[in-house]
UniProtKB/TrEMBL annotation:
Any Pfam family: Aminotran_1_2
Source species of the chain: Phialocephala subalpina
GO molecular function list: pyridoxal phosphate binding; transaminase activity
Annotated TM spans: none
PROSITE patterns cross-referenced by the UniProt entry: AA_TRANSFER_CLASS_1 (PS00105)
Keyword Transferase: yes
Entry-linked Gene3D superfamilies: Aspartate Aminotransferase, domain 1, Type I PLP-dependent aspartate aminotransferase-like (Major domain)
Record domain Aminotransferase class I/classII large: where: 61-394
Native organism taxonomy: Eukaryota, Fungi, Dikarya, Ascomycota, Pezizomycotina
Similarity section: Belongs to the class-I pyridoxal-phosphate-dependent aminotransferase family.
Protein name: Probable aspartate/tyrosine/aromatic aminotransferase
Length: 412
């Protein structure tokens, strides 16, 4: 029997709440941009406001469809990568999936085995290290630190490599910190991977939502697929940066066709193809200039909301701090009292019980207790008015209840 760790983020958001019969008034635990409807997006980037998008799919016979996914959708996905790279990504090197989570699962399940070793950027989305561990892979965590703005140390990467290292796994932009891996660091990762014939797998589900760095900045991070190394893999979806978590479409892309073929085979054991209805709507959303217009809208929203959170942190700098996020609609805030970290799980529990504010406790959902004591993940990609209300409720808690939250002893 495969032993798989409890997926803590979803456990907190679902079972943890239901088991306590607690009402969430202010959800600041989400990690996506403001959800949009298809009607909302009909007019984005299109002057033809009367466009009817559903007619073609209503008359289509719904067979299984192409094995790798809709050709139109894969063409639009390929175009998203080609805007930042002269290296063409053929549509046959793209495989659609129901969401990025399954895309990640397929990559890890299809390419790794019990004799392999992987190096995983940390902190990151739990799936990226728990799935390899569950199938017997030896996992080394490539740890970044807040004191260094969550940057990755390439010398440390070299020290972690073993003779059986099969894959380097990164997440760019990063969940839960909103930090990015700069272009220079990405080039270093690829250079090291190429020296050792190691595959680089990048979860890019928050691309291209870079709200605090310009594309003209020399350190602006391109997709891993633009780095000129065949053994690279990128996954993404419409869930986060594109506001459509309910439209279950993600993808796997690689310049190595053999990697895609292995993932197609693995996917065949779990499902045959993705929903043609979802793929059709995804094709519509990712068509230019609609995709660009949606990202521009979400970057503007993230910038506006980020300023609200930054103001909150500045006003409460005696008890909380963060490294300001650069990409993605989320950040990692550390709460302390008298210089000592508070119990983040107890903080989140009391916040929910007394103020209806839902945050994600970092020590429980992202760490081993030492690295992330006092940390919470906060999502700021939603409605601005709702964010303001949530921050106001959090401010009230800090003024009236925070002094009673226990400290964590034995942690820095």
């Amino acid at each position: 029997m495969v032993k798989i760790e409890l997926f803590e983020v979803d456990h907190v958001r679902v079972h943890w709440i239901l088991s306590r019969s607690l009402a969430v008034k202010h959800n600041l635990a989400h990690s996506y941009c403001l959800p949009r409807s298809i009607s909302d997006l009909q007019q984005v980037g299109d002057s033809n406001t009367s466009i009817e998008i559903f007619s073609p799919i209503l008359s289509k016979a719904l067979d299984y469809g192409p094995m790798k996914g809709s050709e139109t959708l894969r063409s639009n996905i390929s175009r998203c990568y080609s805007t930042e790279s002269s290296i063409h990504l053929p549509i046959d090197n793209i495989l659609t999936t129901p969401g990025a989570s399954l895309a990640n699962f397929l990559v890890l399940f299809a390419l790794l085995g019990a004799d392999d070793h992987v190096i995983v950027q940390y902190p990151t989305y739990q799936q990226l290290y728990s799935i390899p561990t569950s199938i017997g892979v030896d996992v080394s965590l490539w740890k970044s630190k807040k004191s260094d703005d969550w940057k990755l140390d390439l010398d440390e990467l070299r020290r972690l490599i073993r003779s059986n290292t099969k894959m380097i796994i990164i997440n760019n932009p990063q969940n839960p910190t909103g930090a990015i891996i700069s272009k220079q660091t990405l080039e270093g990762i690829v250079r090291i991977a190429r020296e050792h014939s190691i595959t680089v797998f990048s979860d890019e589900v928050y691309r291209p939502l870079f709200h605090s760095i310009s594309p003209t900045d020399p350190e602006f991070p391109p997709s891993i697929l633009s780095m000129g190394y065949e053994n690279t893999i990128a996954t993404s979806s419409l869930s986060k940066a594109y506001s459509l978590a309910g439209l279950r479409i993600g993808w796997i892309a690689s310049h190595n066709s053999e990697i895609i073929d292995v993932c197609v085979n693995a996917r065949s054991y779990a499902l045959i193809t993705a929903s043609q209805v979802d793929e059709y709507l995804a094709s519509f959303i990712l068509s230019p200039p609609r995709a660009l217009g949606l990202i521009e809208m979400n970057c503007t929203l993230a910038q506006r909301n980020l300023s609200l959170v930054q103001s909150f942190i500045d006003e409460n700098s005696s008890v909380c701090e963060w490294v300001k996020p650069v990409g993605g609609p989320l950040g990692f805030i550390r709460f302390t009292r008298s210089g000592k970290p508070v119990d983040d799980l107890e903080l989140c529990t009391r916040l929910l019980e007394r103020r209806g504010v839902l945050l994600v406790p970092g020590r429980k959902c992202f760490g081993d207790g030492v690295n992330f004591s006092g940390y919470v993940r906060l999502g700021f990609g939603g409605d601005t008015n709702e964010l303001e209300a949530g921050l106001k409720a959090l401010q009230g808690f800090l003024q009236n209840d925070y002094a009673n939250v226990p400290l964590l002893t034995g942690y820095d």
